[in-house]
């Protein structure tokens, strides 16, 4: 048998092995799991800015990965062609939150597993991951972290600012001095939404302005 006949027969055999019921079930499972991943990501998101487009990408990734797995599982020739086609694709989107990698790999592996017909493994893995994410989320530190940027004038005002924090835990991150004017960046740990120290600092003589931003340590330039 020539190489041409081998490839021709392999392709024909691949189309003969197509099972519409299995394809439909696998894609439905992948879609349902993608929606589940979307909901889990939305519920437990702790980053700076929630990206709805990224969450929707997780759903599409489940379905498309399942489709690729169904295609390459029918025949070795098709799998080699698919690998060659996908090898030219380059992804340059930066992942800003390390936890997003967990959701990306969850979506990819779910699509692969659903395409392979291992539905029980898909469900079991989903239960384990959801329980893990929910468990870590419930044990997170309840204290909120804020970055406070204060512009003031005079050394005495700086001492008054430090005293105004009282028992609130804080850390001075940086000071920029331009003549008598000072810009001070402070990391503040607050247990509640009430921040009386902010009003006390703003009322001090010599304080020009105050900026307060919630911070979780994941900002990227």
TrEMBL record:
<feature type="transmembrane region" description="Helical">
    <location>
        <begin position="103"/>
        <end position="136"/>
    </location>
</feature>
<protein>
    <recommendedName>
        <fullName>DUF4956 domain-containing protein</fullName>
    </recommendedName>
</protein>
<dbReference type="Pfam" id="PF16316">
    <property type="entry name" value="DUF4956"/>
</dbReference>
<keyword id="KW-1133">Transmembrane helix</keyword>
<keyword id="KW-0812">Transmembrane</keyword>
<feature type="transmembrane region" description="Helical">
    <location>
        <begin position="53"/>
        <end position="83"/>
    </location>
</feature>
<feature type="transmembrane region" description="Helical">
    <location>
        <begin position="20"/>
        <end position="41"/>
    </location>
</feature>
<keyword id="KW-0472">Membrane</keyword>
<dbReference type="InterPro" id="IPR032531">
    <property type="entry name" value="DUF4956"/>
</dbReference>
